[in-house]
Amino acid sequence: MASTTGKRKGSTCEQGGDGDSQSGKATRSSIPDLPEDILLRIHSMLPMREAARVACVSRAFFHSWRCHPSLIFTKDTIGLKKSACGENFDHKIDRILRNHSGCLKTFNLDYNGTRGFDGTSYFDRWLQIALKPGIEELALVLSETKGKYNFPCSLLSDGVRNSLRYLRLRFCALHPTVELGPLRSLRSLYLWRVSITWNELECLLLNSLSLELLDLISCSEIECLKLPCALQRLSALSVFACDRLKVIESKAPNLSSFCLYGNWLDFSLVETLPIKELDLEQANLIRDARAKLPSLMPNIETLAIQSSSEVVDAPMLPTKFLHLKHLTITVRSGAIVSRAYDYFSLLSFLDASPSLETLILDVSQRRMVHESIFADSQLRHMPEHRHGHLKHVKISGFNSAKCVVELTCYILKNMVSLECLTLDIIFGSRCDDQGDDSWCTPMTDGFLMEIPRALLAIKTYIANKVPSKVKLTVLEPCSKCHAKGLERVLSQS
């Protein structure tokens, strides 16, 4: 076996050498004599870090490493420790890109959280290498700096625009002009804390007529969003915390999924939309959602609404959600509560949704402000309304509030197709769902103090009303995450 001719100063894949080493020759001899195009295909299917390791020890794969179609740069993929600084990050990326001689399909640079970041001196050169005809996915996730990096739209040549399918930018400035030209293949556009005005975004959208998904997060310069009918393929829109955005209009004919978080939606400005999936989060939302959504979005099938406070209970109205199958309602009370929300009024949604199959309610509250069922056990009664489709109900943050118990009893009595009722005494995520090293969502002392009463309310008022065909599941506090807190607050009470 041939001996090593000299010590290497670093990995072959980083140095850009010829891979001629004892290790490389030994590995090459063990690889079947496959055609080069098949070897290239095998190598291209490996994740980036594994592809680089193979290239470091095998001459057979060294050439294909230089042509690897997917470069995803994070601290993990390039093997940097958490304490590594931005200079090391830049140096490794620069070496790999300077030696790259092939056509990239995926270029993903995650600069988020990298220490020692001193500007954007490398970015233009890196993008010049990456943005070539054939590129399909580009993600530039940067850290917050005093001056945002100005993404060079001039690099979006005709060939690049013909192949680019996915674009994700974070902490950049993006200023497209009418001279941009059409991005014929762009399907998904994610803009997160990007400096872009509505006029600039409109220019980008009118050049992206194949767009299917638009995601805007904290784009604070956008004041209105008016989607043109030319966006024939747009099916999903998500808007989160765009503080200045006041007007949302859509003429996109196939928009079926809409998520809006942290922005006030004026329902009077919304036209009738063919939405099938809707996810909304804002204060004082539930009454308007019940009153106006059935006529504005008559085709809705999945609805999720979240409110941190409500000043008016849900009204009983004749309008219907005729196609609604999946409903999630979250009404969480914070430390300061102006009024105790009547959860029993949510049966208005049940009455209005004859096709409903799944119901998820979150009635969590940091401290008990409602009248307890143990203070007044006389339940209110509503006219019976048999519901023939609802099969699964889950209530998170279940407590001993009289209105919560009343709503649960109403469901048990009137949902004749019910198969499963789950009452979760806590709220949020549980450690069992996330792995051994995770923890359940922390609970406040006020919430922990309510847990024994909630369990007693289930035993006293709920369990004996559960039909034999219905499976009742009670999710109690976690012995690992909540036992000590429960013991502490109960000893103080």
What does this 3D model show about the protein?
Residues 96-479 form the At1g61320/AtMIF1 LRR domain. InterPro entries: At1g61320/At1g61330-like (IPR053772), F-box-like_dom_sf (IPR036047), F-box_dom (IPR001810), LRR_At1g61320_AtMIF1 (IPR055357), LRR_dom_sf (IPR032675). Residues 20-30 have a biased composition (Polar residues). Residues 31-66 form the F-box domain. By secondary structure, this protein is α/β, with parallel strands linked by helices. Among the domains are: 1-68, no CATH class; 303-493, no CATH class. The protein contains 14 helices and 19 strands. It has helices at 12-15, 22-30, 36-44, 48-57, 59-66, 86-98, 123-130, 158-163, 198-206, 286-296, 347-351, 402-414, 445-462, 483-492; strands at residues 70-73, 106-110, 137-141, 149-150, 166-170, 172-173, 188-192, 213-217, 224-227, 236-240, 247-250, 257-261, 277-281, 302-307, 326-331, 358-362, 392-396, 420-424, 471-475. The strands form 3 sheets. Strands 1-2-3-5-7-8-10-12-13-14-15-16-17-18-19 form a 15-stranded parallel beta sheet, with no helix packed on it. Strand 18 (420-424), helix 13 (445-462) and strand 19 form a beta-alpha-beta unit. Helix 13 (445-462) crosses helix 14. The chain is globular and about 75 Å long. Mean pLDDT is 83; it is low at 1-29.
SS-based class:
alpha/beta
User: How are strands sequenced across the largest beta sheet?
Assistant: 1-2-3-5-7-8-10-12-13-14-15-16-17-18-19
What level of helicity do the residues show?
25-40%
Q: Give the CA-CA distance, first to last residue.
A: 78 Å
Gross geometry: globular
The strand count comes to: 19
Please count the helical segments: 14
Region (Disordered): 1-31
Pfam family, one: LRR_At1g61320_AtMIF1
Domain At1g61320/AtMIF1 LRR: 96-479
Biased composition (Polar residues): 20-30
